[in-house]
Amino acid sequence: IGSVFSALSAAVFDRGARDDDTVDRVNHMVMYGLLVFLGVASGTRQYVGSAIYCWSPAEFTEKIHRRYIHHYCLGQQNVQLALFLFLAVLFRVPQLLWKQLNKASDANMQLIVGMTTDTVFMDQNTRDEQLRRVAEYFHRWITTGTPSSRFLHCYYFTVLRAFCCNVYLYTSTLYFRFFIISAFLKTNFWKFGFHAMTSYIRSGQWEDEYNFPRVTHCDVKIRQLENVHTYTVQCVLAINLFLEKMFLLLWFCLMLMLFVNAISFVKWLFLLANESRSILFLWKFFGSFLSSRHTTFDDRRKCLVMLRRYLKADGLFVIQMVSVNTTDMLTIDLVRQIWLRYKTSCEEGSMMISRDGIKLNGHSVSNLNDSDDE
Questions:
Q1: Cβ-defined contacts of 32-39 (< 8 Å, 24+)
Q2: Tens digits of residue pLDDT in 334-358
């Protein structure tokens, strides 16, 4: 399912550097576009085509009278097709919130992904220089822009919490959509698709006469002189033939996205909260440029320390997002530059300690050694 969604979103909605994953794009692009299309299609059928046909009484000889009855009875049937557009807007809200929370976390992931993707057609030297700049930006952000905390124990809106909040909103608002549609149709929309499949299996066809009646009766009150006469006219709702199929398609899409979003939310939490999985993910890229023959025990120890004290959950999440939106080769090159920048910072820290000395009871180690020599 993930590969299918990835191919679809890449082919139809490729907009350069991204700061989200495939499931996120399917939510705020594919589902948003589908609901806008359904809203426009149903609205076109209602206002351009003939959505309803009513059998007018014989005394209504004028064309304007028959048109009035058609419009009046169409409004009486509660065909509120703006529902599709409202549901489409709900798919945009989590993505807009994610953009704002991403800015609040000081993590410009779109810049990191964009600069990494731009190196795909560069030669190796130019690519290394560009990725070195990305690693330097990443180092400044990870050392100054994130709180000092262990896995998932954060006290601020970090980039990881912001994205998890985004995925959670997609999942929770899907439940909200089912209740909205149920209130609109005055039925249990959760069972809508199951009833359709059951009816089709039993009889070979499906028609929902309760929610989408083909024929209905409409009471029209007409004032003649001082009296009000009520005329009951029979109407054929041709638009319900289309709405029935549209809501069935919507049911299947919402159920699929409910399942996919729940899996995505659990996957991100499990991947980032499970340290062993995080180590395996990092070592997949480390193993590509650190051969076992040249890898020392100190390098392996630094890899674990890098994950726990340097990257933490936020840094690992950014690397995950880069790997989702770029190729493995570019991710390997970026991780290598981040690794080199981390080793440089460790060496700089060691040099600072050796130069300034470690203070013991108010005296530095270097000063104590000098006094011993004297």
A1: 32/88, 32/91, 32/92, 34/253, 35/84, 35/85, 35/87, 35/88, 35/91, 35/250, 36/84, 36/85, 36/88, 38/84, 38/246, 38/249, 38/250, 39/81, 39/82, 39/83, 39/84, 39/85, 39/88
A2: 998 998 898 888 877 654 444 444 3
**How far is 166 from 253, CA to CA, in rounded Å?**
19
Q: Based on the number of CB atoms within 10 Å of its own CB, is 9 exposed (0-12), middle (13-18) or buried (19 or more)?
A: buried
Which amino acid appears at position 237 of this protein?
A: L
Give the residue extent of every domain in the chain.
1-94+148-266, 108-144+274-350
Residues 318 and 116: their CA atoms lie apart, in Å, by 12
- Which CATH architecture best describes the domain 1-94+148-266? Up-down Bundle (1.20)
Q: Give the DSSP H or E segment for 212.
A: none
Q: How many CB atoms lie within 10 A of CB 297?
A: 7
The bridge status of strand 359-360 relative to strand 363-364 is: antiparallel
Nearest to 70 by CA among 93, 83, 54, 92: 54
User: CA 139, 145, 149: angle at the middle one, nearest 5?
Assistant: 95
User: Token digits for 344?
Assistant: 């440089």
Residue whose entry in the numeric block shows the structure tokens 């359904």: 38
Please tell me the pTM assigned to this model. Answer: 0.74
DSSP annotation string for 236-272: E-THHHHHHHHHHHHHHHHHHHHHHHHHHHHHHHHHH
Quick check: helix, strand or coil at residue 219? strand
- Give residue 186's region: left, alpha or beta (phi > 0; psi -120 to 50): left
Q: pLDDT tens digit string along 186-228?
A: 889 998 889 888 888 888 777 777 878 888 888 888 777 777 8
